[in-house]
Specification:
One of its GO terms (biological process) is RNA methylation. The chain is an alpha/beta fold and 428 residues long. The chain has 21 helices and 12 strands. The structure holds S-adenosylmethionine (SAM).
């Protein structure tokens, strides 16, 4: 397929996403099945166009004066991929699969200036979230929003139980991985421009042997800050597919015991294979049966709550969720988080540590949630996050990451990672 045909396909996929309220990955897969002539390069390019359109949906729509799939995809070509109206119309003229030529109004979108547009539009986020973002991230919130609308890097965590960074770098040399800026076992491959393909690392021998996992550097940092130590009894209360569990196990050198639990059996399902592949021997999976955790009450050194959240920190990877988020969904997540904090506290022994984590930057899910918990639960106090950073990451806490409420917030702008929040609490 040539570029114009790829644009037409992206318009069709985006229309499918919007009309049928489908996840992007599903719509892309369906398009691939119906268009088997398309190669891997075509599918990657079409995926990039669709994801880029959704990442900057608000500003692209404002520039084009329209939010149709066609307007959004043409905006990506001109505003993100360096095409001009002239280059597009010229290419369209010689490709029977091309979209219709650009109208003068569409062509004007290429040079539209959005300085007078609402700040939420410039930050590429829904209007109703602007106040929360400003409260959480301060005067830079528009630039933070713009960074949250960029393409993410592909990050790996070297599994210290089986490999070294040097070994993984050698195994993946063809993709030129670099050391991550903060996470000690992190490797990163920056996102390329335009139709660049994401390296397919999960077919690498090193991955199959458990030498590394795909994990955003932000997720690695908060897992390190949870600071699970050798010999401890640790409950991973929202283990899901085990991304944090694996990192905790490596941090603990396979000693002590991790109990990995999740209330959703299907989310937990991949954890068994992942534990095996990673050579983890100190984790016990607790499936969500009645009384599954009763024997752990009051016994844990550490409880990690990687809470269900709105995922605002992962908008770069799942930009469709940005536009689907509603105040009702946020309220639902807040209620779940509040209940989980109370639940987590039960399992700690005196002197134990609760690590509360979200992949969101909204204060309602972060500092506010902890403040409400502390107000209602006697006997808990925040641990010094700068000291925890020094202990876990052996450097000083970079400026601007600590939150007003005593937690820590990573963002694409500040740390080049997904957005994450962590707060450490000690039970008296
Ligand atoms: C952010 S995800 C966890 C991701 C996982 N820790 C990882 O690193 O891959 C949140 C998880 O919380 C689980 N969850 C939601 N409510 C829960 C509850 N009341 N008890 C335990 N797990 C819960 C969800 O099923 C979901 O898997």
């Amino acid at each position: 397929m040539r570029f114009p045909g790829r644009l037409s396909a992206a318009i069709a996929v985006l229309a499918d996403v919007e009309q049928r309220k489908r996840p992007v990955s599903e719509a892309l897969k369906a398009w691939g099945l119906n268009n088997r002539f398309a190669g891997a390069g075509d599918r990657a390019a079409i995926g990039n166009l669709v994801y880029d359109a959704l990442r900057r949906r608000a500003s692209h729509a404002a520039a084009m004066g329209s939010d149709t799939p066609r307007a959004l995809v043409l905006a990506v070509a001109m505003r993100d991929w360096g095409e001009t109206p002239e280059s597009l119309n010229q290419a369209f003229a010689s490709d029977t699969h091309a979209p219709e030529p650009l109208s003068p109004q569409e062509a004007a979108g290429a040079v539209a200036v959005l300085a007078a547009a609402p700040l939420a539009t410039q930050a590429d986020m829904p209007d109703w979230l602007a106040a929360s973002l400003e409260r959480a991230l301060g005067p830079d919130w528009v630039a933070e929003g713009q960074a949250m609308a960029g393409r993410p890097s592909l990050d790996l965590r070297v599994n210290a139980l089986k490999a070294t960074p040097e070994k993984v770098m050698k195994s993946l040399a063809r993709f030129s991985p670099q050391s991550a800026a903060i996470a000690p076992f992190g490797l990163t491959m920056p996102a390329g421009p335009r139709d660049a393909r994401t390296p397919n690392v999960t077919t690498d021998e090193g991955y199959l042997k458990g030498w590394f996992e795909v994990q955003d550097q932000g997720s690695q940092i908060v897992a390190a800050l949870a600071n699970a130590r050798e010999g401890e009894q640790v409950l991973d209360l929202c283990a899901g597919a085990g991304g944090k569990t694996l990192a905790l196990a490596a941090n603990m050198g396979n000693s002590g015991q991790i109990f990995a639990y999740d209330s959703d059996r299907s989310r937990l399902a991949p954890i068994y294979d992942r534990l095996k592949r990673n050579g983890v021997r100190n984790a016990q999976v607790r499936a969500p049966n009645d009384n599954a955790l009763d024997d752990l009450v009051g016994k844990m050194d550490r409880v990690v709550v990687d809470a269900p959240c709105t995922g605002t920190g992962t908008w770069r990877r799942r930009p469709d969720t940005k536009w689907k988020l509603t105040p009702e969904l946020l309220a639902q997540r807040q209620a779940e988080q509040a209940a989980l904090l109370v639940e987590a506290a039960r399992y700690l022994k005196p002197g134990g540590t609760l690590a509360y984590i979200t992949c969101s930057v909204l204060p309602e899910e972060n500092d506010d949630q902890i403040a409400a918990f502390l107000a209602e639960t006697p006997g808990f106090a925040s641990l010094d996050i700068a000291a925890a950073w020094r202990q876990a990451l052996i450097t000083d806490l970079p400026e601007g990451l600590a939150t007003a409420g005593g937690g820590l917030c990573l963002t694409p702008l500040r740390t080049g990672t997904d957005g994450f929040y962590i707060h450490l609490l000690r039970k008296a």
